[in-house]
Design a protein that fits this description.
Layout lengths: L1 E6 L9 H8 L3 H12 L5 H10 L6 H9 L7 H10 L2 E10 H11 L3 E10 L2 E8 L6 H13 L6 E5 L13 E5 L3 H4 L4 E3 L8 H4 L1
Parallel strand pairs: 1-2, 1-5, 2-3, 5-6, 6-7
Antiparallel strand pairs: 3-4
């Protein structure tokens, strides 16, 4: 068995989920600036996540669900995932974003699982609180080791792909380390770099 773990925002999905939510409140630029700094490794991921989610307080949860279901997939995503599965990969998404976005994408893409955070809501609106599997800089590295142990997959048979600083923690546990349209901080630790917005380019390195 082989394992492929993908980041979601700006990797499997073309954009940042939280920026789409912030746009509804007229806060897209403010939130996007914080997101960009976090992905470059200039801010602590946990602190930046808490700060950004707090800015979403009051957003209607029905609107959050609607946006989450309609996020744009990255070009090549629909073609890539079936090919990976044909080649013996279990394909999983790890996201420092939110399950309200990753779970609909999991269904569309046929992923084997998604691990992400949960936006807390009460009385039909976001409370500005968040919790979940992927809250910290180290979360993805921690989770990939657990998944590898459960599935019995070695580092040699593991592929990881992401774009930002919080994807770095996965890289020591994979033989194929893909930086996809990535920040420089991640490219430095990758052994495969793809700068075109086309996920099918990954197939050139595995088939």
């Amino acid at each position: 068995m082989k394992l492929a773990v993908f980041d979601f925002d700006s990797t499997l999905m073309d954009g940042e989920t939280i920026d789409f939510f912030a746009k509804e409140l007229g806060l897209e630029k403010k939130v996007a600036t914080i997101t960009e700094q976090a992905m470059r490794g200039e801010l602590d991921f946990f602190e930046s996540l808490i700060t950004r989610v707090n800015l979403l307080k009051g957003l209607e949860y029905n609107k959050v669900i609607e946006i989450g279901k309609n996020l744009p997939l990255m070009p090549g995503a629909l073609e890539l995932i079936p090919k990976l599965k044909e080649n013996g990969y279990k394909v999983i998404c790890f996201s420092g974003g939110f399950r309200v976005g990753t779970t609909p994408a999991k269904e569309k893409l046929g992923l084997d699982g998604d691990f992400a955070n949960i936006l807390h809501h009460k009385d039909g609106v976001l409370t500005g609180l968040v919790g979940g599997d992927m809250m910290f800089d180290f979360s993805k590295g921690d989770m990939i080791q657990r998944v590898q142990n459960i599935l019995g997959v070695s580092k040699e048979n593991t592929l990881v792909c992401g774009d930002g600083a919080n994807d770095r923690s996965m890289f020591p546990y994979a033989a194929k380390k893909i930086a996809f349209c990535a920040k420089d901080i991640l490219k430095k630790e990758a052994n495969i770099i793809i700068d075109n917005k086309d996920l099918t380019k990954i197939l050139e390195y595995i088939l």
